[in-house]
Amino acid sequence: MKDSITTQRFYLRPITIDDVTERYVDWFKDEDIIKFIKMSKSKPDLMDLQKYVISKLDCENVFFLGIFEKYSNNHIGNLKFEPVSIKDGNATFGIMIGEKEWRGKGVASEVLNASIEWLYQYRGIRLVGLGVDKNNLSAIRAYEKSGFVVDQADFIITKPGDITMIKKMT
What is d(CA 157, CA 153) in angstroms, rounded to the nearest whole number? Predict the structure, then answer.
C-alpha cells in the first residue's frame, strides 16, 4: 500500500521505523493497553518495538498502519490486519489507540470502516474478523458500531476469554 487512507479526522499510512518513538513505547506502559494488547505483556522497549515493526514491513500478508491525526500529524495509534489472505478474501484485525485523549472518541469506528473499505475495494477482502477480550466492553461496542457481529470464523485464532467477531463486506 503506497497511498494513505484518509478519514474525516485521520490519515492511515504504513507504519515505518521512524514512527517507533519513546512516545510509542510509553503506550505499552498504560494499564488500559496492557490489559488487552498481546505485545504489551512483554513490556517492550524501543529496540523491541523497532524489531517488531521491521519484521512486519515486507510481509505480504500484513497491512500494518499508523493512525495519524490529520491536522497535527500526531501518531495516535496503530491498526494491523494480519494475516491477510487475498486468496481466501479474509483478514484478521487488531487496533491500539495509544494516545489516551483519543480513546472513546470514535477513532476505532472511523479508521476501521475506512481501512476495511480500502481492503475490500483494492484487495478483494470480503470478510474481516477479530478476537476481543470479552471484558473489553468499549472495544466490543466500537466493533458493533462498525458492523461487526459475534460469530465464529475458522481463520481467526483467539485466546481463552476472547470472543470472535466478524464483518462481511457485500
Answer: 9
